[in-house]
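Subject: mismatched residue count in predicted assembly?

I count 515 residues in my input, but I want to confirm that the predicted structure covers every chain. Input:
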Amino acid sequence: MFDGLQRVWETFFDLDLIGQTLPTLLRVGLLNTLLLAVLASLIGVVVGVVIAAGLMSSKVAVRLPCRVYVDVLRGLPHILTVYLVGQGLPLAGVTLFGENTYGYAALAIGLLEGAYMAEIFRAGFQSVEKGQIEAARGLGLSHLETLRFVVFPTGARRVLPPLTGQFILVIKGTALVYLLGLTAGQREMFAIAQDTAVLHASLSPLVAAGLLFLAITVPMTYAVNAWERRLREGRQDIAADTASDSANDRDRALAPQGTG
Amino acid sequence: MTTQTTSQTPTARGTSVTFEHVNKRFGRTQVLHDICLQVPGGQTTCIVGPSGSGKSTLLRCTNRLEEPDEGRVLLGDTEVTDRSANIDAVRARVGMVFQNFNLFPYRTALDNITLALRRVRKLPAEEAAERAREQLASVGLAGLEHRRPAQLSGGQQQRVAIARALAMEPEVMLFDEATSALDPELVKGVLSIMRDLAGQGMTMIVVTHEMRFAQEAAGQVVFLDHGRLIEKAAPDKFFGAPESPRLQAFLSAVT
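Triage response: the counts match. Full output below for your records.
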């Protein structure tokens, strides 16, 4: 029993090795991970919103391709998608990013995360009450204006929590860039950890990387939650306020009407 | 079907609304049967009837939130039901107030009002805000411009919704059970605004369960039952000497 614990400790928590790995992780990996994650997330959000709008279209010719996109990209193993985009595009002569693995990796991860985000956005947009849409159309706003000024602002706030989960998956998904081959300076956190792990036949460097992933994702989750709460509105001091306004409401109702 | 009705030109008193042989089905259920109704400009027409009688559906045909299957709806001289008509332009001439307020939850009271002023009326931001402030003040909400709907009571929310509709300077106002979702003590405030509006000569179509309001504010009262227009009369006659047995039964049940 004690031997077992000892082995686990040595394999995963070799403090020397973790200490050795951390500087490179912080100096090279962290920045690359964040850069990739931000790029891929931006692509994912844009793709997600566009595809979500397509999924809600009443025109089959628009809806169907979007449906296929979501089903295929969510259904394929991510590794295959990364290869298809990262190696397939250059092979096909589409050298958008030249020799830069990063562009392809960000695009691949963004495209596949976009498929997941599309479903999140669609659910959020469709959760917007019909009455709000009727109010907007009733005022004379067009279909597109209603989407832009009424459905999107409400829906986007509602999807923040599930979207945060998706951003976490993007951050962890950046590890897939490894598949496309990287120079030493391009490595993101997981690639660095894996290289070091192989070199030392120990899993401790991966734990070091894991700690850094947590250091990114956990604060981000709390930050987004706090942001979402603030967007929903600072309710704390309002409850009492509203109660007294109801009283005003009553006063006004009972007072003689002099205005007009 | 070519029904020529006598002139519906907007009079000095306001824009009229005309329903001509309006039929509407939801699936197999026919919710409106051949409704013909003239809503004169400058006065209030109240539509009453049991729930499920088609009152709201008829009201919503006015700005085509519901699409009639047959028949025509005219707003002044404009045929609302004309498929080639610019429906957004027609809707901008009609204000609507809903049972559940339907305010935009993430916009302040002021921004709820300025949105359409800026996007539809194309007013500059400053002018839109100014008009919104005036409108909020006129419904007794000065000082609450920057509240979100969730920070307002139901009565206040409905007043913002009325201000939002009025700021567009509509020719016709539609009220779809505007007080049904309110706590009893907040109903009066909203009704008094509606009464003021009626007094100013706004053309209004009001679907309501508030019989006293209908009695006091309406120029004519209409009774709908099972999608049919059963009776239509001036309030005195409507409430004092109802003709059809169904209206008599309805009135004795609700008053």
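The CA atoms of residues 53 and 122 of chain A lie 7 Å apart. Marking this ticket as 'not a bug'.
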